[in-house]
Amino acid sequence: MALRLERGLRLAARCAPPGRALWVTTAAASQERHFSASSPRRQSDEERYIQYSKVPTLHFQPSLPRLPIPKLANTCRRYLDALRPVVEAGQFQKTEQLVAEFGKAGGDGDALNTQLRRKDWLNKHTSYISGPWFDMYLASRDPLVLNYNPFMAFSDDPRNPDQADRATNFIRSAVRFRASLLDNKLEPEIFHLKPEKSDTQRFRNFIRYVPSRLSWYAALLVKAFPLDMSQYGRLLGSTRIPCRGRDQLVSHGNSRHVLIMRNGHFYTLEAMQPDGLPTLSAKVHSQLAWILSQPDALPPHPLGYLTAINRDQWAELHQELVSNEENKAALEQINSALFVLCLDDQRPQTPEEASHQLLHNYGANRWFDKSFSLIVTEGGLSAINFEHAWGDGVAVLRLMNEVYRDTTQNPYVPPATPPSPSGEGVERLQFQLSDRLKSAAEAARSEVEGRTRDLNINIVQYRRFGKNLIKAKGLSPDAIMQLAFQIAYYRQYKCSVPTYESCSTAAFRHGRTETIRSATAASKACAEAFEGGHPAGAEEMGQLVAENSKWHSKLVQEAAMGQGFDRHLFALRVLAEAEGRSVPLFEDPSYAHLNHIVLSTSTLSSAAVQLGGFAPVTPDGYGVGYRIEDEMLGCNLSTYPTRDGPEFIANLQTVLDELHDVLSGRNFKQ
């Protein structure tokens, strides 16, 4: 069984979309995702649930395989492979010696790895990375905005609903999603390697009767790979609470209300009735119309900016806020809300303007501590901006997929529904602010506006070729896109730099992410060969591109299998720091250099998402959100003033032209 498990996971990792590996929701929507004619249900069930799955949501969770701890020797080898193209030869030789000492029997790595395996054995309910990863996020004192919270924008609704219409439909669908999740009716997340066998009613009728402790193994027999859903519990009704030294995640399982923000003011309304059914859409629509009709300008001391500053500073101010009983009650309403709906008056005209508004909005009309913020602009553009400590985007993308499909296929408020504003049932939250809190809010606004205005965004949609041509050549689309980034950077600075590509390890219980190190010896060889003065012709460059694709695919497969090196070394370093152990490898300049990420990349692929982005993770870095479609390659690039984003984009477009020539057998140098 162990051999079959390994072979199955490796095959799934090879076939899954690269870069995000095993957590992509299958595109084919079976009848079971919604109600089918054969599903036994009551009318109230159709109103209550967005899905009514025969297979319980958490059916596979008890039998999911555990995230493996890689062999120390493999981690050391992979670490050196990642270092070789991004450090000088002399420094690399010094690091090689440190790695040899670290990995030898009786060395620091050997001792720490023994401790890690022992600790993992004593905590079989979770993964070795889950606790340290939560701590890493929650102990960080950096502001959430720009440093952690990303955004994903919904695709446009073809019916072109207005702001109140789309927001009302989103609220109802999100409540129905939550009901399905809480009542174990949401279809389990499964990667179907052979959907003709596993994404069927026959499979569901069979697998639901298999005991949960065996269900994962039974699914494996038909090449179906259930994914971890432990993060879904914090998707709705959760908030990050600021505390000195380390924040806390708090969830409220009985929440029935939604927080509404408009012009920095706070309102709440009941989105769910006491019987669990969604509040009537006509009522919610009237309430939102009333909120949108309020003439209030931005308050002189908007509290939302405080969620975008240093976490210790915010924690101190938070303590003062809750010392007042009225403020404490208002904050409890914010913290316990299902989510925050941000109604923005702006109407962005370009993708760049939209990215700024959805990523940070210069701090205005946001409460960044909530598990996610649903943003709906005046023109109907909508997005989710989410806090990252509780999860890695797996649950967020699933929510977006289901809600987008429900709101576009089964809208409860048709377009251009005449508003009939009513404030009945809407509660406006009020705060009593001391002079110190007023000054702090003003200072936070000034700081956040200044910091966010330093961010530059450049977007390109390249349409000369896309996934279809790349796959026709037998290459990995993700490898080609990552290679384009590497060559574009090399052309700008004549070197390769540490690069991060996120890969989910949701194939394992309480898996989080692993890093794909896309800057490799193979990508550097390509970058050098693509230089105009290099003698390589079309055939040689084509061979180098193929070799890079093969190596990149290997890295994707290893990361999805939990066989990268970054999380393993991170866990060992956490253990060393906890016991005050000095480890030369972790004090080596090469380790610091490799973890100073210059190119931070992440990809999106969903019919529900049209745009996504995030800020660079270092002041001299690039934030690269990208998407790969059949006939289009897109990039949403963010930079700070230390980097020339337009030059990188120009290089990227040129490099994609050159890659197209090479894939077509032409020598662009002639």
Describe this structure in words.
- By secondary structure, the protein is α+β, with helices and mostly antiparallel strands.
- Helices cover 43% and strands 14% of the residues.
- The chain is built from 24 helices and 18 strands.
- It has an 8-stranded mixed sheet, with helices on both faces. Strands 12-18-17-15-13-14 form a 6-stranded mixed sheet, with helices on both faces.
- Strand 6 (257-262) and strand 7 form a beta hairpin.
- It is globular.
- The chain starts with a helix and ends in a 7-residue tail after the last helix.
User: SS-based structural class?
Assistant: alpha+beta
Helix content: 40-55%
| Termini Cα gap | 55 Å
- Please state roughly what percent of the residues sit in beta strands, choosing from under 5%, 5-15%, 15-25%, 25-35%, 35-45% or over 45%: 5-15%
Mean pLDDT: 93
Determine the number of helices (DSSP H or I, runs of at least 4 residues).
24
Sheet with the most strands: spatial strand order: 11-7-6-8-9-10-1-16
What is the total tally of β strands? 18
What overall geometry do the principal axes of the alpha carbons give?
A: globular
The largest β sheet comes out as: 8 strands, mixed
Radius of gyration: 25 Å
| Uncertain segments | 1-7, 15-40
